[in-house]
What we know:
single chain; alpha/beta; Rossmann fold; Cytochrome-c3 Hydrogenase, Chain A, domain 2; 2 domains; 5-stranded parallel beta sheet; globular; 3 iron, 4 sulfur cluster binding
Amino acid sequence: MGLSRREFIKLCMTSAAGASLISVLGPEINETLAMAAEGKPPVIWLQGASCTGCSISLLNSVDPVIEKVILDVISLKYHPNISAGSGHHVGEIFEEAIKNYKDQFILVVEGAIPLKAEGRYCTITEMGGKEITILQAVQALGKASMAVIAAGQCASYGGIPGGAPNPTGIVGVNKVVDPKKVINLSMCPMHPDHFLGTVVYVLKYGKIPELDRHNRPKMFYPKPIHESCERRPAFDAGKFATFIGDEGCLSLLGCKGFIAMSDCPVRGWNNNVNWCVKAGAPCMACSEPTFPDGASPIYGSYPLTNKQAPASAQFEPQKTEILEKRRDSRKL
Length: 332
């Protein structure tokens, strides 16, 4: 029995913690992936200003294992870390995609885009003896692609490379290509399930999933982390941690789960071994456009401004209570 888009999204949003997305979606999705691979919808993966953490996150995928992702899930034409080609050979791959697969391939961009000095702070290949910058490659390939996946915080909003004073003029992908094509998977690093689920959706339904106001798939960024956090009962009971390692809500220690939109509490990380709050660390809101400058200090109290206010108005009285508790804790 086929899955409707509504059913697909519901499964993505309500999958039980510890169960991989592909396992939850079942054999029909595996069949969709196999058919897509046979049709060879190309995927081209570029890296700009980044730490390669999003690629490492995908390499840590357990179910399906990375071999299945590369060989069956996607027809990976180029990835700078695992492809043998370099130099002008890479430029030829780009030209082939633009010429032969226009509006058929998916462009994945990991890392941010430097704009200053005409983008020369990040060159990735060459053609005809001339250097090709990530800016030039993303603009050309993005225009010809069917969809552009901004893999991770840096590609989505600039991330740490775009932090103040941002000397290279870093921007996110949607500042240099048509933003209507861009899907932001804005965690730091990107979650493997978010990537695989997005790719499956685009291939299965031939369209971009419903996005929120920051161009993130609503099925993976449904609500503030605070609403489903495992420490929410402690917050409701007024029990707050004052030191790292304490039991209780971590909001006095700078937890930004009120403004961070993600399904981390449900999906977990590293095959649900852990996630930030479960490990005792406050959420740093790495999913948000304000990261990292607007989320600093990472491990300490910070003022919640109107711009960073919780997504739901119901948290306004709670925000006031937290600010009062923070002021009291600093007096101790």
